Amino acid sequence: xxxxxxxxxxxxxxxxxxxxxxxxxxxxxxxxxxxxxxxxxxxxxxxxxxxxxxxxxxxxxxxxxxxxxxxxxxxxxxxxxxxxxxxxxxxxxxxxxxxxxxxxxxxxxxxxxxxxxxxxxxx
Length: 123
Ligand SMILES: [Zn+2]
Prior knowledge:
The chain is mainly α. It contains five helices and three strands. The protein has helices at residues 45-51, 58-62, 64-87, 89-104, 108-116, and strands at 17-21, 29-33, 39-40.
């Protein structure tokens, strides 16, 4: 199939093709027919998958588990971007270290309460 954005219908059964993302925030999609599950490749897509030795695992990409992980990862990357923009790189690195330390510490919840209390010396 030529790389054509109008190719929205399955050449086999004529139904709509659904466009699937494969990796988070990567402009590479695969078109799959929801009716007959045929997968249709634009130019170079098959070669791209072969080069990365992924062409044997195509059905994995369309699984709800893979698609859910993809959405989770995209969400995570959006948060990372937002934190970087909000805190700046140096402070973001510091708060991540502190957060990891609190998560591992047996008194982590109490340390967190101390940290977030405006005046931890008031009753
Ligand atoms: Zn079809």
